[in-house]
Amino acid sequence: MQEAMIKRAKELLADGIVDRVIGWKKGEFSYDHTPAVFTSAQELDESFVCDDFTSANLSKYLVKETIREGKILAFLKPCDTYSFNQLVKEHRIDRDKVYVIGIPGGPKLDIEKIRARGITGILNVRNENYTLKIETIYGVSEMPFYEAISVKCESCKSKKHVVYDELIGEDGEVLDSNRFDMVEKLENMTSQERYDFWRSELSKCIRCNACRTVCPACTCEKCVFENPDSGIENKAAADSFEENMFHIIRAFHVAGRCTDCGECSRVCPENIPLHLLNRKFIKDINSLYGTYQAGENTTDKAPLNEYKMDDCEASIVHERGAE
Amino acid sequence: MQVNNNNEFQPLIVAFCCNWCSYAGADLSGTNRLNYPTNVKIIRVPCSCRVNPMFILRAFQRGADGVILCGCHPGDCHYTSGNYFTRRRMTLLFSMLDFLGIERDRTRVEWVSAAEGAKFAATMNEFTEAVRKLGPNRRLEDLRCRKQ
User: Fold this and answer.
1) What is the ipTM of this complex?
2) Closest Cα to residue A169, out of A1, A302, A50?
C-alpha cells in the first residue's frame, strides 16, 4: 500500500493538483515515524512511510497547513476523517485546500506494548501473518500481532471514511465497538473506588500537555491553560487539585466535539487512560441527549450548542446509582 | 472549611446566583425575615450560563465544601435560553465529577425565581445540612489553599 500511496502522491504533485503532501516520515527506528510534509517526489521516495506504526492523526496539522498557500494532499485513516470533518465544521480547516485520500485504518501497533513484554533494544518489527518478528540487539523475539495493538485500535468505532476525494483500498463499515465497557465498569464501582482509581492514574501526570497539543479538537490559538492568571499554567502539577482540574477542564472543553480518535491516550508518556474521560462525556451525551458522533457530518449541531425544552435536570446525576 | 468556637465543622457553601432571579430571590428571603445559614456565600452572575465549569472547580479549590448554582426556571431566562445551556453543561460536569469519585452531593443546580424567597431559604438550609453531613471537602481541595 505504501508504494501505491507514493505513486499516487507523485502523480498529483507532477500534475500540479497539489503542492504539498502530508504523511509520515521514517524515524530513527522502524517504529518512531513522525508526521511530516513532503514537497517533492525525491523526498517521498527517501522517507515517506506507511506501515503498522503510522498511527498519528494528521488532521490537526491541516489547521496550520491550510492557512498557507496552495493545496495539500492528506492521507487520512478512517478515524482521522472524523477529526477532519469536525475541524471543517468548526471552520478551522479550509476544505478546498485539501485533497483527501482515504487509506485503510489500523489496527496500528504500540511500541510500548512490545516493550512491556520485556523486549528491549528493538531494531526492527516485522508483521508476518499476524505474528510479530521483533529483531533486537539480542536476537529475534516473537509475539502475537493483536497483543501489541494500540489502545485506540482495541475498540475501533469505524472503518468507514466519512470524507474523501479518492480512496486507496476499500471503504469499511461503522463498527459496533465495545468502547464504553471500561467506562461502565468504572461507573459500577463505588465512589471511593473510582476516586482511588483516578488518583492513581492522574497522579502520574507530569503536565507535559501532550494530550492537549495532539488533540484535534483542541485548536484554540490561546489555550486557557496558558493564561498566567489561571494559576495552573505551571509545568508540573503541584497539587492533586491541579491534576483533577487540568483533566476535567481538558475533557470538558472537547465535550461534544471529541470524535474519540484516542490520540490523547496514545501520546501520554505516563499511559494515563485519558480517553476514558472523553468517552464518559460521549456516553453521557448519547444517553441523555440522543446518540451523537462528532465529525460524522459537517451539518449537525453539537450537543452543547443546542438544547431541548424537556432536557433532563442536572439532578439526574444525583438520582442514578446507589452510592 | 471553617471551624466554629466549639470546634464543629462549618461547611462553606458558594452559591452562584443569577442576577435576574435567584439573587433577587435571596433578597426577598431577607426582606421576608427568613433564615438561611451564614455559611452560604453568594456570588452574583449575570446569568446562570455565565458560570464556567472552571468557576465551580475554582470554588472548591479555594475552600468551598459545596457549590450550588441558582438560575431562572427553564423558559424564564432573561436572555431567553441561557439556563437551557447551563442545564446541559452542569449535568455533564456533575456527572464527570461523580465519575472521578468526587461526592456528587457537593454540587447542585436549583431553579429559584425572584418571587421564591421561601424556596431560596429552604434550598440553602437543606443544601447546607447535606454538605455538613458529608464533612469537609477533601477530594477536590488544594492543600496550598487550606487555612491554618
Assistant:
1) 0.91
2) A1
